[in-house]
Amino acid sequence: MIFLVFGLVGTPLFARGQATLQEAYPDLGFGVLRFAKLADLPKGTVLSSDDIVIDESLLLQMVEKESPEFREDMKKNLLFVLEKEVKNKLLLAEAYKNGYPRETPEDQTISSFKNSKIPALSVSDEDAKAFYEENSAALGNLPFDQVADAVKEYLLDQKREEASDAYLLELVRSKSIQIHSSWAKKNSALARDNPVDQARSSGKLTLVEFGRTGCPTCDMMQPILLNVEERFFDKMNILFVHIYQLPFLASRYHINLIPVQVFFDKTGKEVFRHVGFYPQNAIEKKLVEIGVN
Question: Does some domain include residue 141?
Answer without folding.
Answer: yes
